[in-house]
Amino acid sequence: MLHTVDMAQLAVGDVFDDRYRIDHPIARGGMSTVYRCVDLRLGRAVAAKVLDEKYLSDPVFRQRFRREARAMAQLTHPNLVNVYDFGSDGDHLFLVMELITGGTLRELIAERGPMPPHAAAAVMRSVLTGLSVAHAAGLVHRDIKPDNVLISADHRVKLADFGLVRAVNAATATNAQIVGTVAYLSPEQVDGSDITTASDVYSAGIVLFELLTGTTPFAGDTALAHAYQRLDEVVPAPSSRIAGVPPLIDALVATATAQEPADRFADAGEFLAALDDVAAELALPAFTVPVPTNSAANRAAAVPTDITDLMGPATGFIDPAPIDDTAVLGTETRMDTPRVLPAEPPLAEVAGPAPVPDVIPSSLPSSLPPEPEPDTPAPVSNRSRVGLIVWLTVVVIITIAVAVGAWWFGSGRYGEIPQVLGMDRVQAVSTVEQAGFAAATRIVYSDDVPADAIAGTEPNGGERLVRGDEVTVLVSQGRPTIPAAAGMDILEFQQVASERTLTISTGEPVYSSDVDEGRIARTEPAEGEAVPIGSTVTVHMSRGPEPVQVPDVVGLSLADAEAKLSALDLTVAQVEREYRSGAKADEVLGVTPSVGVTVNRGGEVTLQVSSALAVPDVSGMDLDAATAALEQAGFSVDRTRRNNSEVRSSPSTVIGTSPTAGTMVRPDDTSIDLVLPGRVTVPDVTGSTVREARAALANAGFEVNASERDDARVVTRQRPAAGDDARVESTVRLTLR
């Protein structure tokens, strides 16, 4: 029979959660032991991290562990170790993950030592890409270190162990302990400050330092002394430990490991963008991360066991051969040094049911004593016959029950997942339910299946699964399309792109008059274009508006110059007035910056403008109106004079100015003389009363020879006659009746 699990003492062949069979131990750390396991339900190899039983008694830890594990299980990315399952069984919590058969970054550093900048950048690019996905989802790792960076057999770098350290923090917070790996702790993890995504950035910066130099920056006689060093000292430049590190790499490490979180990159996305910029600036070549050759995972994968077959004989359960328990798990080591477990010796393959021997074994006696002759049976009574029938009936019922039970607990409880490719959603769900499974649906991207068609199931069609378990029907939404990106922050776009299975790379920045500098201007492929799953989208960040040259506006009026500058998004910040002989009023005399100088759009310029004032033309206006117009233009009326050679209908009509209209004058010499007519056309007042005639003639600038006692008398004749012109203020003689 299969071993039932005693989680306090796990051994090869044990099954926990009725699903995962332990195949071989891989490594042990201070928190957990990692086993290579077989998923009996899906028939695949997985890695199971079984946490130490000391965490079970803390309900805060258990709750946080489940929450963090659930959050990580929802994240899928090529640079993250996939979490398949989690739960508890007996005395332990467990986490079931993707099995990585390559090794850890710690093992690679041990094999190869310090890495050149281009190799270190290649490793960190994958680490930061995976970490940025988690940061965008609101998760903080809290234990970034080479031991948690795995390298798969296909050279892919993956980040593992999200959520575990955060859960441990909750479980140990009351013990005044520093949780995490001392060499990679951020200052805030040591002094108890708030832990944010910038804390992971610090730890990642230490990992980059170690990749470049082969060592971590701090040391101490005790773990506590080692931890507290980072509160007082800054991380040294990698170039101070090893030759060949460019200053830009030193600066990258310095920013990532700044003591104050506000001085670091805010999260892994910012760190990744800076790393890409530095790599582009230094023209670092591409690099394929090698797989460790002497890793615990490789050694464990090479060990054959007697339980690698997923199913035993159809006639019953597997009864494995005795397991050599002499390879006992050692005591736990420090949290920051995972202990590699010794490989177990090869074991015999599982044997099937033993065949029935054809001959009697020689160890038995060659002859047996003769059996005694049976007595003659007594006649069977009716009572004994009834009892026999009852007994036989019970035996048959028990036999049937045993057979049915064996069928149910053997193959009967399992059903085969139907193939639903080509069906519509309703038909596929119905088919799954009719096969005895609970059906759920999930929208997925597919390169081959058109939108709204069924892309398959999870688990796959044809696999066997316990009836009643959930089967997810995968509904295709076709290939992913490039999401809208213009104006977005790169981290915001990265999260949207990752939800569509897309990754991003940074292209050359471009000028854009519509998008602010530092935000996405455009993408390649363009927005809305359908691309294969997992495609890379090249993001071009905005450099802001394209620079322009200051145009030639000298000689233009101020209004025309402002319009010309505004068309280039340039603003007149200041107007400097100066008088220059011969220059017109408001004529532009110069510009700063000078004509032809390149400036940013949206910039400001200063104009030198003529301060000369042009005497306005007020001819034909009434004296009061002309005076008001001159004052509004910045002039003052000094005096008025009459020109006796000019005749007008009104004595107050302005016929000219001195200086004349259009003359340019200095702004400090604005006195104007107004010229009025010296002679006026005499109005016709005959037939009017003296009172009426006096008023009309006075309005025309004349006096009369009649007194007020004659006001009621009528004018019969006047001299000068009506229509003649006479000097202003002269007397018109009236003849009265």
TrEMBL record:
Transmembrane domains' residue ranges: 388-409
Domain Protein kinase: 20-287
Ranges for domain PASTA: 411-477, 544-611, 676-737
Keyword annotations from UniProtKB, A to Z: ATP-binding, Kinase, Membrane, Nucleotide-binding, Repeat, Serine/threonine-protein kinase, Transferase, Transmembrane, Transmembrane helix
Comp. bias regions, Pro residues: 367-377
Name of the molecule in the record: non-specific serine/threonine protein kinase
Chemical reaction(s) catalysed: L-threonyl-[protein] + ATP = O-phospho-L-threonyl-[protein] + ADP + H(+); L-seryl-[protein] + ATP = O-phospho-L-seryl-[protein] + ADP + H(+)
Gene: pknL
Region span, Disordered: 345-380
Start-end of Low complexity biased regions: 357-366
Signal sequence range: none
Family matches, as InterPro entries: Kinase-like_dom_sf, PASTA_dom, Prot_kinase_dom, Ser/Thr_kinase_AS
EC number: 2.7.11.1
Domain of life: Bacteria
SMART domains assigned to the protein according to its UniProt record, in alphabetical order: PASTA, S_TKc
Record GO biological process: negative regulation of fatty acid biosynthetic process
Gene3D superfamilies cross-referenced by the UniProt entry: 3.30.10.20, Phosphorylase Kinase, domain 1, Transferase(Phosphotransferase) domain 1
Any one GO MF annotation of this record: protein serine kinase activity
